[in-house]
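Tutorial handout. Part one gives the primary structure; part two gives the three-dimensional structure as tokens.
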Amino acid sequence: MDTVRAKKNLGQHFLVDEKIAERIAHSLTGRTKALLEIGPGMGVLTKYLISNGEYDFRAIEIDRESVEYLHNHYPTLNVIEGDFLRLDLNTVFDGKFAVIGNFPYNISSQILFRVFEQRNLIPEVVGMFQKEVAERIAAGPGSKTYGILSVLLSAFYTIEYLFTVPENVFNPPPKVKSAVIRLTRNDVERLGCDEGLFVRVVKTGFNQRRKTLRNALKPLNRSLDTIPDELLSKRAEQLSVTDFVNMTNWIAESPLNQTNT
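Part two.
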């Protein structure tokens, strides 16, 4: 089928198990009444979201054939033909909205980075991801799967790993298992540090995650003399959000290293 091939090229696999689709739809808390589905494809999840009736519900789909299918089968659905990663999210609804979807594997991390950037606009996310990506997002400090997205998202969201999804419920079946997670915005408005620098510190620390932070943070070109050895001797995966906030504040107050020419 042409549409299936087109979607596969975008990293999308169609969910064909109705019970799983219904379970995903019911994973929303319902606290946010505006809802955007990303990549609805042939609408297996869409039908349960429409039938719910309590949401101001819209969908965004990049594949033209899928858009046509959705228009034909769900004529009342507001379908945005476009790319979520490039969409001006302030134009979708008049205010905050939840996000849901069976996210394409190849852009799922990019979707979450966009959610992080728009965290004050998106209070809830329910999504299906490749299982190892879901585990990484939900991981806590000390875990080998704990990474950049784990820190950035857990700073502003409560993250719940809801359930694992087997390969055989998709068409075409992926080579890996999937999992559904839920992100719910917490009460943190500000981290108490330069948040732009916080992101840089987190990314830099994990870019060389096998090294201690004393060595991993050298690309920041800052003096680390004011940072306790207890933190610098650790690796990024061992630090909590609070640890990263504290480190960001110390680095913000540190002078740039002077290089000899």
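Part three, for discussion. The longest strand covers residues 157-165. Confidence is low (pLDDT under 50) at residues 1-10.
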